[in-house]
Specification:
single chain, mainly alpha, 1 helix
Length: 28
């Protein structure tokens, strides 16, 4: 796996975690 692909997957994962945390804050 090339570094560009690995960085791309990390970006998506981080974005998903940010969205999840944002949803949690909206529920409270």
């Amino acid at each position: 796996m090339c570094n560009r692909q690995k960085g791309w997957l990390t970006t998506i994962r981080n974005r998903a975690e940010i969205i999840e945390s944002f949803k949690q804050q909206q529920l409270n």
